[in-house]
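go over this record:
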Amino acid sequence: MKYYLIAGEASGDLHAGNLMAELKAQDAAAEFRFIGGERMQSAGGTLVKHYKELAYMGFIPVLMHLPTILRNMKLCKQDIAQWRPDVVILVDYPGFNLDIAKYVHAQGICPVFYYISPKIWAWKEYRIKRIRRDVDELFSILPFEVDWFAQRGYTIHYVGNPCVDAVEKMRKTFKDFSELCTIAILPGSRRQEIKDNLGMMLQAASKFKNYKLVIAGAPNIPASYYQRFIPKGIKANVRFGETYQILNQSVAALVTSGTATLETAILHVPQVVCYYTPVGKLISFLRKRIIKVPYISLVNLIANKEVVEELVADRMSVENIEKSLAKILPKGCCRQQMLCEYDRMCQILGGAGASRRAATQMIECLKNK
């Protein structure tokens, strides 16, 4: 079968690449064309555009690059219409991908599958109408999404979470540490997140003198950028491409919101979620009225309770981080309970094999159609 995949950022490229490898393993005649990156290229097929030519986020960057975005969208539509795939598989990136879904559905070219659902349960719930209309099958990696979509009259498939696969793969290479002496600092993958969060995270963690501080560096962010926000007198190493290894040798972690909170929990490292934003009181006010979910971390959303403390917007301060961190360090009052809740969360997620299960279900759905 002919598969056309679209991923618009690094994480989507990773998960789509793993999915393609599984599709190829189960479909000897598989052919691929795609918008993506190096991970997808390693699975084989034809790269139409690199995702870096699409990945503009935020109102101003999108507005500045609107002609380029529209050209890429037109190119993608024309390429799909010309190649006539058996299925289009969209990977997250809803701003671009939902428009592609609308076009493919309207033209009747082929079924549209969505792998890794847009997070419309957090905001922009109105997009459910577009998904119902334009997406034939949706494959979720977050278990709570099944009930959320079902309550709105749309049935989806839960295939497991690829973070479990990634952690299990890396775990085989880990060294055992007899003594954990590091506090991991994961200040986000974007420059603004690092600017807003890193300084306070380090100030709080440095109060605990028995531990080294290690910052997990994000791809495409130079080490010199991190140095700008390390307070004077505080020693902290920045390591790149070693996030899982850093967590494995850490006694606790300070983590910004995102997939990193889930990966930290799967690795059983107690954590505090830290996410500072300017005008914090206004953000907290708007959050209660615009954001549709009670938590920002995937750990708490999956567990449906507060497993990890979330210091968000006006709640985030050096003093609050220090107090919360003390609770999860060895002999801290909340450490063991958090680790027990991690076990329960991992049971909810299910075992490894998300990419394999997704590929199996996709092929089965295509056969049935």
Observations:
- The domain at 2-160+353-368 is CATH 3.40.50.2000 (Rossmann fold).
